[in-house]
Design a protein that fits this description.
Elements lengths: L10 E4 L5 H13 L5 E3 L6 E9 L2 E9 L1 E5 L9 E9 L2 E5 L2 E5 L4 E5 L5 E5 L3 E9 H5 L12 E2 L4 H14 L7 H19 L3 H6 L1 H19 L8 H8 L3 H10 L4 H18 L8 H7 L5 H12 L3 H7 L2
Antiparallel strand pairs: 1-3, 2-5, 3-4, 4-11, 5-10, 6-9, 6-11, 7-8, 7-10, 9-12
Protein backbone atom coordinates (compact mmCIF):
# COMPACT_ATOMS: atom_id res chain seq x y z
CA UNK A 1 0.00 0.00 0.00
CA UNK A 2 1.50 3.40 -0.95
CA UNK A 3 2.46 5.59 1.97
CA UNK A 4 -0.01 8.25 0.92
CA UNK A 5 -2.98 5.90 1.25
CA UNK A 6 -4.94 5.47 4.45
CA UNK A 7 -6.58 2.58 6.25
CA UNK A 8 -10.33 2.13 6.04
CA UNK A 9 -12.43 4.46 8.12
CA UNK A 10 -13.48 3.06 11.49
CA UNK A 11 -16.86 1.33 11.48
CA UNK A 12 -19.29 2.23 14.26
CA UNK A 13 -22.54 0.54 15.23
CA UNK A 14 -24.92 1.33 18.08
CA UNK A 15 -28.29 -0.23 18.79
CA UNK A 16 -29.44 3.00 20.44
CA UNK A 17 -29.27 4.65 17.02
CA UNK A 18 -32.01 2.32 15.75
CA UNK A 19 -35.68 1.72 16.54
CA UNK A 20 -36.13 -1.43 18.64
CA UNK A 21 -37.98 -3.15 15.78
CA UNK A 22 -34.90 -2.86 13.54
CA UNK A 23 -32.16 -3.90 15.95
CA UNK A 24 -32.25 -7.66 15.48
CA UNK A 25 -32.24 -7.26 11.70
CA UNK A 26 -29.28 -4.86 11.96
CA UNK A 27 -27.34 -7.39 14.07
CA UNK A 28 -28.06 -10.03 11.45
CA UNK A 29 -26.69 -7.67 8.80
CA UNK A 30 -23.43 -7.31 10.76
CA UNK A 31 -23.04 -11.09 10.80
CA UNK A 32 -23.81 -11.53 7.12
CA UNK A 33 -21.35 -8.80 6.14
CA UNK A 34 -18.61 -10.43 8.23
CA UNK A 35 -18.16 -7.33 10.36
CA UNK A 36 -19.11 -8.53 13.87
CA UNK A 37 -20.76 -11.93 14.58
CA UNK A 38 -23.23 -10.93 17.29
CA UNK A 39 -26.23 -13.02 18.37
CA UNK A 40 -28.87 -11.82 20.87
CA UNK A 41 -29.11 -13.95 24.01
CA UNK A 42 -32.55 -15.49 24.65
CA UNK A 43 -34.66 -13.44 27.03
CA UNK A 44 -32.09 -10.60 27.15
CA UNK A 45 -32.27 -7.03 25.93
CA UNK A 46 -29.49 -6.69 23.35
CA UNK A 47 -27.35 -3.56 23.51
CA UNK A 48 -24.29 -2.72 21.43
CA UNK A 49 -22.17 0.39 21.04
CA UNK A 50 -19.02 -0.63 19.21
CA UNK A 51 -16.30 0.71 16.94
CA UNK A 52 -14.10 -1.41 14.70
CA UNK A 53 -10.74 -0.21 13.41
CA UNK A 54 -8.96 -1.88 10.51
CA UNK A 55 -5.17 -1.84 10.92
CA UNK A 56 -2.52 -3.77 8.96
CA UNK A 57 -2.66 -7.37 10.18
CA UNK A 58 -4.97 -6.64 13.08
CA UNK A 59 -8.60 -5.74 13.69
CA UNK A 60 -9.51 -3.69 16.76
CA UNK A 61 -13.04 -3.94 18.12
CA UNK A 62 -13.97 -1.93 21.21
CA UNK A 63 -17.05 -0.64 22.96
CA UNK A 64 -19.86 -1.98 25.14
CA UNK A 65 -22.00 -5.10 24.67
CA UNK A 66 -24.85 -6.50 26.71
CA UNK A 67 -27.31 -9.36 26.17
CA UNK A 68 -25.21 -10.64 23.27
CA UNK A 69 -23.00 -13.53 22.24
CA UNK A 70 -20.03 -13.01 19.94
CA UNK A 71 -19.29 -16.14 17.86
CA UNK A 72 -16.33 -17.35 15.84
CA UNK A 73 -17.10 -20.41 13.75
CA UNK A 74 -14.52 -23.17 13.36
CA UNK A 75 -15.87 -23.65 9.82
CA UNK A 76 -14.53 -20.29 8.68
CA UNK A 77 -11.20 -21.11 7.04
CA UNK A 78 -10.30 -17.42 6.91
CA UNK A 79 -9.77 -17.61 10.69
CA UNK A 80 -7.30 -20.53 10.62
CA UNK A 81 -4.25 -18.35 11.29
CA UNK A 82 -5.94 -16.02 13.75
CA UNK A 83 -5.98 -15.48 17.47
CA UNK A 84 -8.45 -13.34 19.37
CA UNK A 85 -7.21 -11.37 22.37
CA UNK A 86 -10.21 -10.29 24.45
CA UNK A 87 -9.79 -7.69 27.20
CA UNK A 88 -12.59 -6.95 29.66
CA UNK A 89 -12.17 -3.31 30.68
CA UNK A 90 -15.19 -3.44 33.00
CA UNK A 91 -18.03 -5.84 33.64
CA UNK A 92 -18.07 -9.60 33.22
CA UNK A 93 -17.58 -11.86 30.19
CA UNK A 94 -17.30 -15.60 29.64
CA UNK A 95 -15.40 -17.36 26.83
CA UNK A 96 -16.65 -20.83 25.80
CA UNK A 97 -14.79 -23.35 23.64
CA UNK A 98 -14.94 -27.18 23.48
CA UNK A 99 -16.52 -27.72 26.89
CA UNK A 100 -14.09 -25.26 28.44
CA UNK A 101 -15.06 -21.94 29.98
CA UNK A 102 -12.93 -18.96 30.98
CA UNK A 103 -14.63 -16.26 33.01
CA UNK A 104 -12.90 -12.89 32.99
CA UNK A 105 -13.82 -9.63 34.68
CA UNK A 106 -12.57 -6.06 35.20
CA UNK A 107 -9.16 -5.57 33.59
CA UNK A 108 -8.61 -9.26 32.77
CA UNK A 109 -8.01 -10.80 29.35
CA UNK A 110 -8.16 -14.16 27.60
CA UNK A 111 -6.63 -15.56 24.39
CA UNK A 112 -8.80 -17.61 22.01
CA UNK A 113 -7.67 -19.55 18.95
CA UNK A 114 -9.94 -20.54 16.09
CA UNK A 115 -7.52 -23.43 15.40
CA UNK A 116 -8.92 -25.07 18.55
CA UNK A 117 -12.47 -24.99 17.17
CA UNK A 118 -15.37 -22.58 17.27
CA UNK A 119 -15.75 -20.39 20.31
CA UNK A 120 -17.93 -17.61 21.64
CA UNK A 121 -17.73 -14.79 24.16
CA UNK A 122 -20.93 -14.25 26.14
CA UNK A 123 -21.81 -10.92 27.72
CA UNK A 124 -25.24 -11.11 29.41
CA UNK A 125 -24.70 -7.88 31.38
CA UNK A 126 -23.00 -4.64 30.24
CA UNK A 127 -19.31 -5.17 29.58
CA UNK A 128 -16.86 -2.63 28.20
CA UNK A 129 -14.24 -4.47 26.18
CA UNK A 130 -11.43 -4.51 23.65
CA UNK A 131 -11.06 -7.34 21.14
CA UNK A 132 -8.01 -7.79 18.93
CA UNK A 133 -8.10 -10.13 15.91
CA UNK A 134 -4.47 -11.03 15.26
CA UNK A 135 -2.22 -13.25 13.15
CA UNK A 136 -1.15 -16.40 15.01
CA UNK A 137 2.13 -16.63 13.07
CA UNK A 138 3.08 -13.02 13.73
CA UNK A 139 2.29 -13.24 17.44
CA UNK A 140 4.01 -16.63 17.78
CA UNK A 141 7.28 -15.00 16.71
CA UNK A 142 7.00 -12.61 19.66
CA UNK A 143 5.43 -14.67 22.48
CA UNK A 144 6.76 -17.83 24.11
CA UNK A 145 4.71 -21.06 23.94
CA UNK A 146 1.70 -19.35 22.47
CA UNK A 147 -0.34 -22.57 22.29
CA UNK A 148 -0.22 -22.83 26.08
CA UNK A 149 -1.79 -19.38 26.43
CA UNK A 150 -5.18 -20.10 24.88
CA UNK A 151 -8.16 -20.00 27.25
CA UNK A 152 -5.87 -18.73 30.00
CA UNK A 153 -7.03 -15.69 31.97
CA UNK A 154 -4.41 -12.94 32.14
CA UNK A 155 -4.58 -11.04 35.46
CA UNK A 156 -5.67 -7.42 35.53
CA UNK A 157 -2.48 -6.35 37.33
CA UNK A 158 -0.29 -7.36 34.37
CA UNK A 159 1.46 -4.07 33.57
CA UNK A 160 1.68 -4.48 29.74
CA UNK A 161 -2.02 -5.42 29.69
CA UNK A 162 -2.88 -2.22 31.53
CA UNK A 163 -0.85 -0.19 29.05
CA UNK A 164 -2.50 -2.04 26.16
CA UNK A 165 -5.98 -1.12 27.45
CA UNK A 166 -5.02 2.53 27.72
CA UNK A 167 -3.33 2.55 24.31
CA UNK A 168 -6.41 1.06 22.62
CA UNK A 169 -8.50 3.68 24.42
CA UNK A 170 -6.58 6.36 22.55
CA UNK A 171 -7.16 4.53 19.26
CA UNK A 172 -10.87 4.25 20.00
CA UNK A 173 -11.11 8.05 20.12
CA UNK A 174 -9.96 8.30 16.49
CA UNK A 175 -12.82 8.86 14.07
CA UNK A 176 -10.93 9.23 10.79
CA UNK A 177 -8.93 6.84 8.68
CA UNK A 178 -5.24 6.84 9.60
CA UNK A 179 -2.34 7.16 7.14
CA UNK A 180 -0.93 3.71 6.36
CA UNK A 181 2.46 4.42 7.94
CA UNK A 182 0.85 5.47 11.23
CA UNK A 183 -1.58 2.54 11.33
CA UNK A 184 1.32 0.17 10.68
CA UNK A 185 3.26 1.55 13.65
CA UNK A 186 0.19 1.28 15.90
CA UNK A 187 -0.40 -2.32 14.79
CA UNK A 188 3.22 -3.21 15.64
CA UNK A 189 2.83 -1.62 19.07
CA UNK A 190 -0.30 -3.69 19.74
CA UNK A 191 1.45 -6.93 18.80
CA UNK A 192 4.34 -6.06 21.11
CA UNK A 193 2.03 -5.23 24.02
CA UNK A 194 0.02 -8.45 23.63
CA UNK A 195 3.26 -10.47 23.49
CA UNK A 196 4.53 -8.74 26.63
CA UNK A 197 1.22 -9.54 28.35
CA UNK A 198 1.51 -13.24 27.46
CA UNK A 199 5.22 -13.82 28.00
CA UNK A 200 7.56 -12.55 25.30
CA UNK A 201 10.66 -14.12 23.79
CA UNK A 202 13.96 -12.54 24.82
CA UNK A 203 14.31 -10.92 21.42
CA UNK A 204 10.78 -9.51 21.64
CA UNK A 205 11.49 -7.88 25.02
CA UNK A 206 14.26 -5.76 23.54
CA UNK A 207 12.28 -4.99 20.39
CA UNK A 208 9.20 -3.94 22.37
CA UNK A 209 10.90 -1.08 24.24
CA UNK A 210 9.57 1.49 21.78
CA UNK A 211 6.04 0.08 22.03
CA UNK A 212 6.14 0.30 25.80
CA UNK A 213 7.24 3.93 25.65
CA UNK A 214 4.52 4.77 23.13
CA UNK A 215 1.82 3.07 25.21
CA UNK A 216 3.00 4.66 28.45
CA UNK A 217 3.08 8.11 26.83
CA UNK A 218 -0.49 7.64 25.58
CA UNK A 219 -1.58 6.53 29.05
CA UNK A 220 0.03 9.59 30.62
CA UNK A 221 -1.50 11.93 28.04
CA UNK A 222 -4.98 10.50 28.65
CA UNK A 223 -4.47 10.83 32.41
CA UNK A 224 -3.46 14.47 32.00
CA UNK A 225 -6.48 15.18 29.80
CA UNK A 226 -8.77 13.57 32.39
CA UNK A 227 -7.38 15.43 35.39
CA UNK A 228 -6.52 18.73 33.77
CA UNK A 229 -9.66 20.64 34.70
CA UNK A 230 -9.87 19.10 38.16
CA UNK A 231 -6.36 20.20 39.11
CA UNK A 232 -5.20 23.67 38.03
CA UNK A 233 -1.80 22.94 39.59
CA UNK A 234 -1.23 19.59 37.87
CA UNK A 235 2.47 18.70 38.19
CA UNK A 236 4.76 16.18 36.57
CA UNK A 237 5.58 14.85 40.06
CA UNK A 238 1.93 14.01 40.71
CA UNK A 239 1.53 12.30 37.33
CA UNK A 240 4.78 10.37 37.81
CA UNK A 241 3.59 9.09 41.19
CA UNK A 242 0.31 7.89 39.68
CA UNK A 243 2.13 5.96 36.95
CA UNK A 244 4.93 4.71 39.23
CA UNK A 245 7.71 6.26 37.19
CA UNK A 246 10.10 9.13 37.80
CA UNK A 247 9.45 12.71 36.68
CA UNK A 248 12.63 12.47 34.60
CA UNK A 249 11.24 9.45 32.75
CA UNK A 250 8.10 11.43 31.86
CA UNK A 251 10.20 14.35 30.66
CA UNK A 252 12.15 11.98 28.41
CA UNK A 253 8.93 10.51 26.98
CA UNK A 254 7.70 13.95 25.98
CA UNK A 255 11.13 14.93 24.62
CA UNK A 256 11.06 11.88 22.33
CA UNK A 257 7.63 13.05 21.20
CA UNK A 258 9.06 16.45 20.23
CA UNK A 259 7.51 18.43 23.05
CA UNK A 260 7.65 18.88 26.83
CA UNK A 261 5.34 18.04 29.69
CA UNK A 262 4.73 21.73 30.38
CA UNK A 263 3.97 22.55 26.75
CA UNK A 264 1.58 19.60 26.42
CA UNK A 265 -0.35 20.66 29.54
CA UNK A 266 -0.49 24.25 28.30
CA UNK A 267 -1.77 23.20 24.87
CA UNK A 268 -4.42 20.99 26.44
CA UNK A 269 -5.66 23.90 28.57
CA UNK A 270 -5.70 26.20 25.55
CA UNK A 271 -7.61 23.62 23.51
CA UNK A 272 -10.23 23.40 26.26
CA UNK A 273 -10.52 27.19 26.27
CA UNK A 274 -10.82 27.29 22.46
CA UNK A 275 -13.68 24.77 22.44
CA UNK A 276 -15.50 26.67 25.16
CA UNK A 277 -15.13 29.95 23.34
CA UNK A 278 -16.62 28.34 20.23
CA UNK A 279 -19.53 26.85 22.20
CA UNK A 280 -22.61 29.05 21.69
CA UNK A 281 -24.15 27.64 24.87
CA UNK A 282 -21.39 29.37 26.85
CA UNK A 283 -21.90 32.81 25.33
CA UNK A 284 -22.85 34.27 28.70
CA UNK A 285 -19.55 33.22 30.26
CA UNK A 286 -16.85 35.88 30.25
CA UNK A 287 -13.49 35.15 28.67
CA UNK A 288 -11.77 35.56 32.01
CA UNK A 289 -14.04 33.01 33.69
CA UNK A 290 -13.35 30.51 30.90
CA UNK A 291 -9.63 31.06 31.34
CA UNK A 292 -9.91 30.41 35.06
CA UNK A 293 -12.10 27.34 34.46
CA UNK A 294 -9.41 25.65 32.36
CA UNK A 295 -6.66 26.33 34.88
CA UNK A 296 -5.15 29.74 34.07
CA UNK A 297 -4.57 32.02 37.03
CA UNK A 298 -3.03 34.87 35.04
CA UNK A 299 -5.32 36.39 32.40
CA UNK A 300 -2.52 38.26 30.64
CA UNK A 301 -0.51 35.06 30.28
CA UNK A 302 -3.61 33.27 28.98
CA UNK A 303 -4.16 35.93 26.30
CA UNK A 304 -0.52 35.82 25.17
CA UNK A 305 -0.37 32.02 25.07
CA UNK A 306 -3.71 31.80 23.28
CA UNK A 307 -2.64 34.24 20.58
CA UNK A 308 0.65 32.40 20.03
CA UNK A 309 -1.16 29.10 19.56
CA UNK A 310 -4.10 30.21 17.40
CA UNK A 311 -2.88 33.45 15.81
CA UNK A 312 -5.97 35.22 17.14
CA UNK A 313 -7.22 36.61 20.42
CA UNK A 314 -9.88 34.82 22.51
CA UNK A 315 -12.32 37.58 21.50
CA UNK A 316 -11.57 36.97 17.81
CA UNK A 317 -12.37 33.26 18.22
CA UNK A 318 -15.58 33.95 20.10
CA UNK A 319 -16.87 36.40 17.48
CA UNK A 320 -15.71 34.33 14.51
CA UNK A 321 -18.22 31.56 15.30
CA UNK A 322 -21.11 33.84 14.31
Amino acid sequence: MPAAEATARPFRFATDDLPESQRELALQGLRERGLVPLEPLPGQVAHADITKHFLPGIGVLCGTLSGLRQDASSQNHDLADELFFAVNLSGHSAALQRQREASFKDGEAVVLSSADGGFCVVRPTPARFVGLRMSYKRLASLARRLDDCTMRVIPANTAPLQLLASYVGAIADMTRAMPAEISGVIAAHLYDLVALSLGPTEAAVAAAAGSLRAARLQAIKRDIATRLLEDPDLTVTAIAARHRVTPRYIHKLFERDGTTFTRFVLEQRLDHAYRRLRNTQLSARSISSIAYDVGFGDLSYFNRAFRRRYGATPSDIRWSRN
